[in-house]
């Protein structure tokens, strides 16, 4: 019960930083999203020891482990676009799947190659 | 108010049910992000519930994505030393990843003959929703279509990412994380956390960097892609 309470409070704290980020973004007309600005604020506060890790860790790990839940409402939104999906759905899927595969393969291999190079290891196949 | 609340509860219950199902039958295509929306949309259609009514509650759950993104500061902070050590690797991999994401989305759209409004909406699909929508707007796409492509990318990445990691023998934790965060934004990052906390940290960094790099690269590369 105590853990649930702390988690809820910490989620509220993280939400607060996201809201601050939103305000900063709208005042300064920044092209990034408020939550990313909030992330950098929290990162800076942690780095300069203003905010203790223990004050947000529980809430952060809860939010991160249940993150798929927060994507579900926007996934349901797809039913609003029945017509476009019926007409072009397979084309969209082909592009998204092939491009995702390409991006993941290239990024993974480049990163792995450089890590091996850096650590002086011969690349294992 | 009643409808909104019941939609929230319904979503949470179905989410936990599909999560349980996924844990029992470890089959990639049964990802909660695929199963739960399918069940929910069939319920909405079956019971003639308007999407806008559902969204009055669903929006509150979707809003929690914002503090979740802020929460990624925690793994980034914890692994800051590793990140600093591999700064060059990360910079090179992410620059390559973002460029490949934009160009391959454009190229495949050309190949399947999609009209340019769809092509432009597809370009920023591999980054987190709010920034993807902003980029889409900037380069002349349709932001709401982009939001859908972002979600579909997330689902695809959840399914494909672990397969790619396995088939290509990607053993480095950093490479696994970067691949998942670059390829499938937050959804990929949640998958990376299943692999381990270091993978999760790398993926959260990749997600943030991909968004920022795309913001800069997309307007530059779009005219080339449209040629």
Shape of chain B: globular
Radius of gyration of chain B: 18 Å
Instruction: Tally the helices of chain B.
Output: 12
Number of strands of chain B: 0
Percent of residues in helices of chain A: over 70%
Question: Tell me about the biggest sheet of chain B?
Answer: none
Q: Count of helical segments of chain A? A: 5
Membrane topology (chain B): Multi-pass membrane protein
Protein name (chain B): TIGR00659 family protein
Keywords (chain B): Membrane, Transmembrane, Transmembrane helix
Subcellular location (chain B): Membrane
Based on the model shown, name its key terms.
heterodimer, A: about 120 residues, mainly alpha, 5 helices, extended, B: about 230 residues, 12 helices
Brief characterization of the structure:
The complex is a heterodimer of chains A (125) and B (227). By secondary structure, chain A is mainly alpha-helical.
Explain the overall architecture.
The complex is a heterodimer of chains A (125) and B (227). Chain A is mainly α and 125 residues long. Chain A has two domains: 65 residues, no CATH class; 49 residues. Chain A is built from five helices and no strands. The longest helix of chain A has 37 residues. Chain A is extended, with a radius of gyration of 21 Å. The mean pLDDT of chain A is 90. Chain B contains twelve helices and no strands. The model of chain B has no long low-confidence stretch (mean pLDDT 92). Chain B folds into two domains: 62 residues; 155 residues, no CATH class. The radius of gyration of chain B is 18 Å and the shape is globular. Chain B is an all-alpha fold and 227 residues long. The chains are: A mainly alpha (125), B mainly alpha (227). At the A-B interface, helix 1, helix 2, helix 3, helix 4 and helix 5 of A face helix 1, helix 2, helix 3, helix 4 and helix 5 of B. Chain A: Keywords: Cell membrane, Membrane, Transmembrane, Transmembrane helix. Chain A: It is a multi-pass membrane protein. Chain A: It holds the Pfam family LrgA. Chain A: InterPro entries: LrgA/CidA. Chain A: It comes from Sporolactobacillus putidus.
